[in-house]
Amino acid sequence: MKCAPGILLIIFIFISHHAQLQGQSDQPPAAYTQAYHDMLQRVEWWQHDRFGMFIHFGAYSQLEQEEWYKTNKQLSHAEYDGLIADFKPEKTDCRKWAKLAKMAGMKYAILTAKHHEGFCMFDTETTEYKITSHMPGRDIVKEFVEAFRAEGLKVGLYYSVIDWHHPDYPHFGDDYHPSRNDSTYMDTEHDFDNYISYMHEQVRELVTNYGDISIMWFDFSYGDMHGEKWKAKELVEMVRKHQPGIIINNRLGLGNNEDWGIREYNYNMYYTPEQRVPDKPILDKYGNPIPWELCLTTNNNWSFHKDDHQWKSPELIIHTLVKCVANGGNLLFNMGPDKNGEVPEPYWDIYQKIGAWMKVNGESIYGCGPSELGRQDWGYFTRNNNILYAHRMYPHIGYIDIKDYFDRVEQVTVLATGEKALVTESWWGDHSGDTNKLYFNIKTPQNHQIHFNYIMPDDLDTVFRIELKE
Ligand code: GLC
Known about the structure:
alpha/beta; TIM Barrel; 13 helices; Immunoglobulin-like; 15 strands
């Protein structure tokens, strides 16, 4: 199903109106309106697709610990390089990763081309610190883009502007560098411009050697290491010269979170909350929604960790995805292959369950966005034009209140099965005086008491499809 551009417009108009009611009535300048409009066009496919896969895979996977290991243990270059020397993930089969993502209903994927450790998962002219030095002929970025495209998924690349390997990246005294406390680097002069040229050249390779790249996911900025420190404008302009339609996240630190506006939309940035779902749409100063994407781990780590068995349940993941869409965001859900490049066993089961739900309920996610009805006791609403989707996650709490839409309801069905729901307008027990309530329930041979609490057919999230009259 193609995203009806109308949904974005409806959200835009509704939220602008809502913001004005709340007193945010600054009239945006024409340049802003143009920048916002252009940005919406660029992110249209992405806001439609809503659900993507993040893949954390690098030489750090060899450690079976975490991708921050080198700095958490403050290892020297020689110590770390000794630990990753055997990294040779010959069993990597990106087609399996792609099948996993597709099975879960994901529509795009982002792979770590280079993480903070500095090891490149692509063949680059700039360094020998790369996968093709360990496994000649195996450019993982190339294998990734080809496999995911073959499954019809869009591809993006994560690239760390921080680099814990390059000799010209500041060592001693840096906030995060593994050698931050190593006094042998105290007087070392780092030619940071040299590092910046190296980093820009690697990004240039990534956006010119691998065909269409839909997203560049930069990571990350801190302290005074942000924005122009990375020559970020030049970097973004170069990326967009080669990939005009690309979407770019906000972690180059070019934007100003308090005053999100023309520059941010022109540089095509979106928000990237991590491990926590925003509880309402994120608005800019004119009250318009800023595109965002939550990134979330499946257990507690991005890269494969041998001792981490704290897997999130399919239920929690589906609820999180719904909550993202209901608040105007996407979900980028992580998978960390093991040191051989294989998908760890637990993912298959978790992703299969998500996929089974998405298969029959995807209509309430793809092409959908927030409805102004907001958070409910029993779950969330999502909306696509004249269809409201009520996600009944907590079936035993409360009734459905669709406020101003009350007179517009055409019919209510259970999305997964298409069966008509029992619907009524009020019941004898409601003495609140507030008659704008809509009750609906599943239909079973025993069930005709609409206001009773019946167990919903899908204990993960039963979706009711509420069709509204135009
Ligand atoms: C953080 C971490 C990093 C991870 C990223 C994913 O910035 O530094 O390890 O890749 O989040 O969002």
